[in-house]
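Form P-L/3: holo structure prediction, ligand copper (II) ion.
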Amino acid sequence: MELGDNYFDPTKLKAAPSETLTLKLENGGKATHTFTIDSLSIDKTLQPGEEAAVDISPSQAGALTYRCRFHGGSSNMKGTLTVGQGGPAGAGGSSTPKPAGGYSGGY
Ligand SMILES: [Cu+2]
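OUTPUT (holo model):
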Protein backbone atom coordinates (compact mmCIF):
# COMPACT_ATOMS: atom_id res chain seq x y z
CA MET A 1 0.00 0.00 0.00
CA GLU A 2 1.51 3.24 -1.09
CA LEU A 3 0.56 6.54 0.37
CA GLY A 4 1.33 9.46 -1.88
CA ASP A 5 0.52 13.10 -1.74
CA ASN A 6 -3.18 12.84 -1.37
CA TYR A 7 -3.84 9.41 -2.74
CA PHE A 8 -3.74 5.76 -1.81
CA ASP A 9 -2.52 3.13 -4.22
CA PRO A 10 -4.46 0.92 -4.50
CA THR A 11 -7.77 2.38 -3.52
CA LYS A 12 -9.45 -0.99 -3.28
CA LEU A 13 -8.46 -3.84 -0.97
CA LYS A 14 -9.94 -7.19 -0.18
CA ALA A 15 -9.81 -9.26 2.97
CA ALA A 16 -11.46 -12.27 4.53
CA PRO A 17 -13.39 -11.72 7.76
CA SER A 18 -11.64 -14.44 9.72
CA GLU A 19 -8.11 -13.65 8.64
CA THR A 20 -5.64 -11.03 9.67
CA LEU A 21 -4.44 -8.97 6.78
CA THR A 22 -1.01 -7.49 7.29
CA LEU A 23 -0.64 -4.43 5.19
CA LYS A 24 2.66 -2.76 4.48
CA LEU A 25 2.39 0.96 4.24
CA GLU A 26 4.85 3.25 2.59
CA ASN A 27 4.61 6.97 2.43
CA GLY A 28 6.16 7.96 -0.87
CA GLY A 29 4.88 11.50 -0.69
CA LYS A 30 6.25 14.72 0.72
CA ALA A 31 3.49 15.21 3.22
CA THR A 32 2.54 13.33 6.35
CA HIS A 33 -0.30 10.90 5.77
CA THR A 34 -2.27 8.46 7.84
CA PHE A 35 -3.91 5.12 7.25
CA THR A 36 -7.09 5.25 9.25
CA ILE A 37 -10.01 2.87 9.63
CA ASP A 38 -12.25 4.25 12.31
CA SER A 39 -14.38 1.18 12.90
CA LEU A 40 -11.32 -0.98 13.57
CA SER A 41 -9.51 1.63 15.64
CA ILE A 42 -6.65 1.71 13.17
CA ASP A 43 -4.86 4.99 12.91
CA LYS A 44 -1.31 4.88 11.62
CA THR A 45 0.58 8.07 10.94
CA LEU A 46 3.46 7.99 8.50
CA GLN A 47 6.01 10.70 8.01
CA PRO A 48 7.35 11.28 4.49
CA GLY A 49 9.46 8.30 3.48
CA GLU A 50 8.38 6.26 6.45
CA GLU A 51 7.28 2.64 6.25
CA ALA A 52 5.01 0.80 8.62
CA ALA A 53 2.79 -2.23 8.83
CA VAL A 54 -0.71 -2.58 10.17
CA ASP A 55 -2.67 -5.69 11.00
CA ILE A 56 -6.25 -5.57 9.91
CA SER A 57 -8.62 -8.08 11.49
CA PRO A 58 -12.10 -7.44 10.22
CA SER A 59 -14.68 -9.27 12.25
CA GLN A 60 -17.48 -9.27 9.75
CA ALA A 61 -18.10 -9.03 6.09
CA GLY A 62 -18.83 -5.71 4.59
CA ALA A 63 -17.14 -2.68 3.16
CA LEU A 64 -14.83 -0.52 5.21
CA THR A 65 -13.49 2.85 4.27
CA TYR A 66 -9.87 3.69 4.88
CA ARG A 67 -8.77 7.25 4.73
CA CYS A 68 -6.10 9.73 5.50
CA ARG A 69 -7.08 11.91 8.41
CA PHE A 70 -5.46 14.93 6.82
CA HIS A 71 -6.65 14.52 3.28
CA GLY A 72 -9.68 12.28 3.48
CA GLY A 73 -12.12 15.12 3.10
CA SER A 74 -11.83 17.59 0.29
CA SER A 75 -8.73 15.88 -1.11
CA ASN A 76 -10.63 12.63 -1.25
CA MET A 77 -7.73 10.52 -0.04
CA LYS A 78 -9.53 7.33 0.79
CA GLY A 79 -10.24 3.82 -0.38
CA THR A 80 -12.43 0.83 0.23
CA LEU A 81 -11.60 -2.42 1.95
CA THR A 82 -14.07 -5.09 0.94
CA VAL A 83 -14.38 -7.92 3.43
CA GLY A 84 -15.77 -10.99 1.75
CA GLN A 85 -16.78 -14.42 2.88
CA GLY A 86 -13.70 -16.14 1.61
CA GLY A 87 -14.91 -18.16 -1.29
CA PRO A 88 -15.67 -16.75 -4.65
CA ALA A 89 -19.02 -15.16 -4.88
CA GLY A 90 -21.35 -17.47 -6.75
CA ALA A 91 -23.15 -16.00 -9.63
CA GLY A 92 -26.17 -17.88 -8.41
CA GLY A 93 -29.46 -18.50 -10.04
CA SER A 94 -30.09 -20.40 -13.18
CA SER A 95 -32.54 -19.19 -15.67
CA THR A 96 -34.71 -21.85 -17.14
CA PRO A 97 -36.03 -20.83 -20.48
CA LYS A 98 -39.72 -21.26 -20.73
CA PRO A 99 -40.80 -23.76 -23.31
CA ALA A 100 -42.30 -22.01 -26.17
CA GLY A 101 -45.62 -23.64 -26.00
CA GLY A 102 -47.43 -23.36 -29.20
CA TYR A 103 -51.07 -23.27 -28.44
CA SER A 104 -53.00 -24.85 -31.13
CA GLY A 105 -56.55 -24.69 -30.21
CA GLY A 106 -59.54 -26.09 -31.80
CA TYR A 107 -60.57 -29.44 -32.89
CU1 LIG B 1 -2.77 12.38 3.51
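COMMENT: Residues 89-94 have pLDDT under 50 and may be disordered.
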